Structure formats: structure tokens, C-alpha cells
Amino acid sequence: HFSPYFDFEIGVPTNLAIDALALLFAAFLPVDIAGRLFLSLVIGFTMAAPLFLSKVVHGKLTIMGLLFSVFIFNDAFLMGFLNFLFGTALAIFGFGLHLIMDKRGTNAWKRVLVGTLIAIAVFVSHIYGFAVYGICIGSYYLARLGFRDLKKLALNAVQFIPASILLALFV
Question: Most exposed residue of 28, 84, 126, 139, measured as fewest CB within 10 angstroms of its CB?
Fold first, then answer.
């Protein structure tokens, strides 16, 4: 009997950014180089995300976007929470992309489709990033629309349904 020694448990498929990307990189690079590449990607994403959002919101790079680079080597980074940092940076990039599509008047369903793909990628990277993405999108529409246009609020909430279903199934 193996049962005392093995336990089969299915959990929420989150916190997997390094697993997915390092596995992809390891297909053509040595594992230590793949890990270093992911580490560099985390640093680059963490620095580029606020710069990108600053450019989208203000139309130019601002000092606030640049000041964030001071906080790249923070406690989360030093303790190795790379999935957390990657997921959060991905959420900020996703929010910036959503703002671009909204400003350009992109079809709402196209925005929801792209947002759904981003939400799933962020969710799989880290659940905290998923929360940050949801708060950003929700705050943006609540500040812009209030509760006047519930149809538009509901439409933009649709992008969170697939990842929320995953979360509900595995909790």
C-alpha cells in the first residue's frame, strides 16, 4: 500500500509563472540560464510596467513612472517571490492595454476577449496579480461610470468569469 506515503491533491492552478516560462526556456537553454532569464524578465517587467502605464495615462513618461524603479529590489524580490512580482507587473501591463483599447474605442467584446486572456494569464502567474488586475479594472470603470451604466460595468466584469470559475472549482 502506497497510500500512507502519497497524497493526490488538486489545487488552484495559480503561482505558476516561473514553472511555465522556465520550462519553455529550458527547452532550448540550460536550466540555470533559463532561471536567470526569468529573473531578468521579472526585473524588466517590474520596471517597465509602471513606465508603460504612465505613458498610457499621461501620453508621456512621467517622473512617477521612473521613480518606481527605485523599488525594484524590494523585500518581495529579495525573498524570492518572483511569481508575485511577475503577476503584478503583468496585471499593470494588462490594465494599460485595457486603457489603450478603451481610449481607441475598441469593440467591447474584443476588449473583453483580450481582457479574459490577460486575466487568465495573470491568474495563473499569481493570484495576487489577479486581484490587482481586478481592482484596477473595477476602479477605473467605477470612477468613470459610477453605477450609472451597470450594463457596461457588467460587460467588463465578464473577463474575470473564467479565472473565477477555476478558483471556485479548486478551492
Answer: 28
DSSP string covering 19-40, please? HHHHHHHHTTS-HHHHHHHHHH
Copy the grid coordinates of residue 166: 477555476
Residue 136: count of CB within 10 angstroms of its CB: 18
- Residue 104 CA to chain centroid, in angstroms? 22
Our separate counts of H helices and E strands in the chain read: 9, 0
pLDDT digits (tens, 9 = 90+) for 50-82: 999 999 999 998 888 888 878 888 888 888 889
Neighbours of 1 (CB within 10 A): 5
pTM of the model: 0.84
Indicate the residue type of 126: H
Q: Within 10 A of 19 (CB to CB), how many other CB atoms are there?
A: 13
